[in-house]
Amino acid sequence: MLREQGNRCAISGTLIFIGDDIEVDHNKPISIGGEDSLGNLQIAHKDSNRGKGAKFPENNV
């Protein structure tokens, strides 16, 4: 999954390095109707993911 993303955080676009705190993120959060499926998952830096919260990318400002 990380290779498919070009070793970049799916939220911030910054490079992910060995040792970085990362999480598997639901692109569209389950809490707002997203599915718990491989197609809805992405790798993100922990801080970026926590900052995103329960927002869907089209709703981020």
Walk me through the topology:
Blueprint: E1 22-26, E2 41-45, H1 46-52
Antiparallel strand pairs: 1-2
General description of the model:
- This protein has one domain (1-54).
- It has one helix and two strands; from the N terminus they run ββα.
- It has one helix at residues 46-52; strands at residues 22-26, 41-45.
- Strands 1-2 form a two-stranded antiparallel sheet.
- The longest helix has 7 residues, at 46-52.
- The N and C termini lie far apart (26 Å).
Widest sheet, order of strands = 1-2
Structural class: alpha+beta
Shape: globular
Number of helices: 1
Assembly category: single chain
Gyration radius, in Å: 11 Å
Largest sheet: 2 strands, antiparallel
Average pLDDT rating: 91
Q: Are there runs of 5+ residues with pLDDT below 50, and where?
A: none
Strand content: 15-25%
The overall number of domains is 1
N to C succession of SSEs? EEH
Estimate percent helicity.
10-25%
> What is the number of beta strands?
2
What are its keywords?
single chain; 61 residues
Short structural description:
By secondary structure, the protein is an alpha+beta fold. The chain has one helix at residues 46-52, and strands at residues 22-26, 41-45.
